[in-house]
Write the structure tokens for this entry.
Amino acid sequence: SGQALYQAVCAICHDTPHRASMVPDLRQPKTPRDTNFWQLWITVGKEGTLMPAFSSKADSGPLSDPQISSLVEYLDKTYPKTPMPVTPLPAIPIPVVK
């Protein structure tokens, strides 16, 4: 299932307490995400990053097409699809000392 696959192949990087700063926190999206987003990055990876291709067809990765589909479905249902809006903190007046 997608959840079991996530725990087996994704969580080691994305959910570790000592996650490398260049490994994204999947709970904090920086861009909108949909099934096409997940499908692309899982299948072919992301060149120039630590994200490898996981498709057995694309780059001799460990996952079959049905496994990738299951993982994509799990990620799409479990993780936020859009970035969270950032609310600026209110300005705090600084007293002027004379």
Observations:
- The chain has a mean pLDDT of 91.
- The chain is about 40% helix and 0% strand.
- Residues 27 and 79 are 6 Å apart (CA to CA).
- The first helix runs from residue 2 to 14.
